[in-house]
Amino acid sequence: MINTFDYSAVDSYMNEQTKRESEKTRSQTLKNDRLHAINQGMKWALISVALGIAIFIGLSGIGNALSFKQVKENISSTFSENSYNDVPSKEGLVGDDVLLDVDALLEEASNFPNVEDSKTAESVRNYVIFDKFEINLGNVTTLWVGRNYPDPDSPSDHQWCYADIGSSTEADINFYFISVNADTRTENEINQDALSILGLTYDQAINLRNKCGI
Predict the structure, then answer these.
(1) Phi, psi at residue 165, to the nearest 5°?
(2) CB neighbours of 137 closer than 8 A, spacing ≥ 6?
């Protein structure tokens, strides 16, 4: 007895696998061709840019050389003309005699204002000296005592004392304890608002104000 087998399903499966492999190979080939084309395009683009830059540099160098030559020629020409024009002629060296009224000139000179005396009279100089004390207590970082002097040999006519207050903002905050101007003395009251600004107790604030020494 002869057994007969149907291999059509096997053949169909083999044909399907063959088609799939062929399709994969074709897709990979197309992908490789596309990448190759892109690489070639980028390569020629870079070569074109490099050539363009080289041509631009070459033309710029030629232009600069021509410009330098033109400027050099212009300078030489101008220098020659000026040198020729600066030479005085014989007629220019000979002029008419002029009589000067010396008495009139001296009288006009005596009427001129004394510029040095006017500047000295208008200028005012003040001398200010600061004493600095590092505190770092509460909100107070520094204590300053300033003294103003009208001139180096005179006593102080204005004194003031204030504290720098540390702040999270960029703005400077100062608390003035005392200001003495001539015979007028002004002291800021140490109240609850002042203590909040200083970040100190009442006794600490009083001791700090006493440190001003004015």
Answers:
(1) -105, 125
(2) 200, 204, 208
| C-alpha gyration radius of the chain | 48
- Distance from CA of residue 88 to its chain's centroid? 51
Q: Greatest CA separation found in the chain? A: 162
pTM flag (> 0.85): no
The per-residue b/e assignment along 46-66, b for 16 or more CB within 10 angstroms, e otherwise, is eeeeeeeeeeeeeeeeeeeee
- What string of DSSP letters covers 115-151? HHHHHHHH----EEEEEEEEEEETTEEEEEEEEEESS
Pairing of strands 158-165, 173-181: antiparallel
Under the banding of pLDDT at 50, 70 and 90, the label for residue 106 is: low
pLDDT for 54-80, tens place per residue?
Answer: 888 878 777 666 666 665 566 555 555
